[in-house]
Amino acid sequence: MFKGIQRKYALTDQGVINVKKGAFWTVVVNLLSMGGMGILYYMVKNYMDVYLNGAQLAPGSTILIMVAVFLVLSIITHLQQYRATYGLVYREIKTVRIGIAEKLRKLPLGFFGKRDLADLTETIMGDVNRLEHVWSHCLGYLYGSFVSTAIIAVMLFTYNWKLAVACLWGVPVAFILLFGSREITKKESVRNKKAAIRVSDGIQETLENMREIRAVNQEELFTRELDEKIDSSEKIKKKGELITGLFVNGASVIMRLGVATTILTGASLILSGEIDFMLLFLFLMVITRIYAPFDQALALIAEQFISQISADRLMEIYDTKTAEGKNTFTPDGHDIEFKNVSFSYDDNSVLSDVSFVAKEGEVTALVGPSGSGKSTCARLAARLWDIDSGSITVGGVDISEIDPEVLLTDYSMVFQDVVLFDDTVMENIRLGKHGATDEEVLSAAKAANCDEFISRMADGYNTLIGENGARLSGGERQRISIARALLKNAPIILLDEATASLDVENESKVQDALSRLLEGKTVLVIAHRMRTVEAADHIVVLSDGRIVEEGRPEELRKNENSRFRHMAELQSKSAEWGFKG
Q1: Angstrom distance (rounded) from CA 486 to CA 430
Q2: If we measure between CA atoms, which residue out of 269, 192, 198, 181 comes closest to residue 238?
Q3: Does residue 36 contact residue 70 with C-beta atoms inside 8 Å?
Q4: How far apart are CA 40 and CA 273, in angstroms?
Q5: Which residues, other chains included, contact 333 with Cβ-Cβ below 8 Å and sequence gap of 6+?
Q6: How many CA atoms lie within 13 A of 306 on its CB side?
Q7: DSSP code at position 58
Q8: Which of 14, 175, 442, 534 is found 20 to 30 A from 145 (Cα to Cα)?
Q9: Do 23 and 150 contact (CB within 8 A), yes or no?
Q10: Of 365, 364, 374, 361, which is closest to residue 334 (Cα–Cα)?
Q11: What angle do CA 48, 53, 55 make, to 5 degrees?
């Protein structure tokens, strides 16, 4: 039972324990509240006996002691209930968030390629927040209410089954109505979630592309589209809340009809002489408390139905297979060898039976048209994704058997799309080597030709560069990326179009920095422009996910039928035409 609940609401093992504790103390609190009704019943019955039968009035001290004990126990049990239903969950939620972060850290990059960024952010932030409320406010309280009501129902049936039925019939009917509306509620929740993600996507897209939007003078168009997404989301949310409210309030009305049926049944039984007034009075007092937990429970059940969408999205992250392996990596050298490697995204084949060797101390260039699989090879070489078949070895060690974090200590990567953080130049370079001294950072920056532009900054190496290096040019951002790689000083270097978007002057400076980075390393270069790989030791030409030829640049150029020679000639002619134009 609890295993099903655990998965249904994305609970951790500790979360299940917290739910049990919350349910237990909720039962205690609900039963104790009935004890308060018992004290009131005792007092009223005593006064009735004094008035009707001349009985002796109960001592005031007895009543005061009963009330005092009740108040003390109420305070203690309510504090325990609060701790179990709120305190423990709020403490546990920190563990949940850290657990999600750890899970995401170990997931292959293919997972992130399939998920929209706004959708993933909504899962981590919005869905976890919704589940946190369900864990703390709903589960323990609701299950505790079910148990306590069942206990009270048994007690009521021992007094008079007719009154018990009149009192309780509305409870199961109300919950049947709510459970019958579950699919409708979940459907509206899915629509609401998708609409919210569209709004997040729209806001993110507008903010990230503000420069381009202004450049084409389309602010009004994008603002109008964003307004439409927000309006649509608001309408869907209102509709969902209206539907939920109708079912919840309808269930509450049905349940409250139990008061009327109890009074009518009780009056009928009194007239027939089956019960006395005091028993009816007892049931009416019980009704004032037995419905109270379910007033909140009805709304909580509706929220639980909605939360199951969030739980499903969170479980999708938990269920995704992580990339794992050994914590030691001792290769015999750093030759990278692909052996009959095939790889696909979902059902879309990207690489098929690819085999080549990138030797240590040499530059191996992967060239070919867009979509041929060049960048995929580089990412597979670092186990950013796992291959479908074949093997990739580094120094004779199969990388699929090595933990990616351990493996990547031997890799440095310089990509065309540099990722920088809204921090100082110093700290952005220091990312290459945790704990590096300032002197080491400065040395790497000078080797990467960063000194030239950093010296012009107001605060030098302590200058904040903005989100993703917004205050830097493309060439400056690229050189900081190379400085990181120099600082790391890993034996394997992956370059993916590192100079593709640079002008001639910046490209020359970056190439100069790269020459220091690549010396004596195993280098895998991905490039579209043939002139950037003329100095490579070995060239692998890819087309449609297959190797069509490989060899040294001069060998391939001599072959009149060479695909590499054909590509180089085409690019050379394109450059001439561009110049003449």
Answers
A1: 10
A2: 192
A3: yes
A4: 24
A5: 360, 395, 396
A6: 27
A7: P
A8: 14
A9: no
A10: 361
A11: 80
In this structure, what token pair is assigned to residue 5?
Answer: 């609940």
Residue 456: CB atoms within 10 A of its CB come to: 9
Residue 379 · residue 410 · CB < 8 Å: no
Say if domain 336-580 classifies as CATH 3.30.420.340: no
Q: Is 236 helix (H, G, I), strand (E, B) or coil?
A: helix
3-state SS, residue 238? helix
2-319 in CATH: which number? 1.20.1560.10
Give ranges for CATH 1.20.1560.10 in the chain.
2-319
Looking at residue 138, the DSSP 8-state letter turns out to be I
Taking the CA atoms of 263, 265, 270 and 276 in sequence, report the sign of the dihedral they define.
negative
Helix then strand then coil, % of the chain, to nearest 5: 70, 10, 20
Confidence (pLDDT) at 9: 79
Q: Range(s) for CATH 3.40.50.300 in the chain?
A: 336-580
In order, the DSSP letters of 527-544 are: -SSGGGGTT-SEEEEEET
81's CB contacts (< 8 A; 6+ apart) are 22, 25, 26, 28, 29
The helix/strand/coil state of 519 is coil
Residue 527 · residue 364 · CB < 8 Å: no
Strand arrangement of the beta sheet that strand 546-551 belongs to = 411-415, 492-496, 522-526, 363-367, 538-543, 546-551
Q: Give the pLDDT of residue 449.
A: 82
Q: If we measure between CA atoms, which residue out of 23, 40, 8, 154 comes closest to residue 80?
A: 23
| 525 touches 444 (CB < 8 A) | no
Give the distance, in angstroms, between the CA of residue 333 and the centroid of all CA atoms in the same chain: 39
CB count within 10 Å of CB 545 equals 22
**Pairwise CA distance, residues 488 & 345, whole Å:** 31
CA distance 34 to 74: 11
* Mean pLDDT for back-to-back runs of 10 residues, the chain (581 residues): 74 84 89 82 76 72 83 90 82 80 79 72 79 82 86 89 91 84 79 82 79 78 86 87 83 86 92 87 83 71 76 84 87 94 86 94 88 88 90 94 90 83 90 89 86 86 84 84 88 77 60 73 82 81 91 86 81 51 41
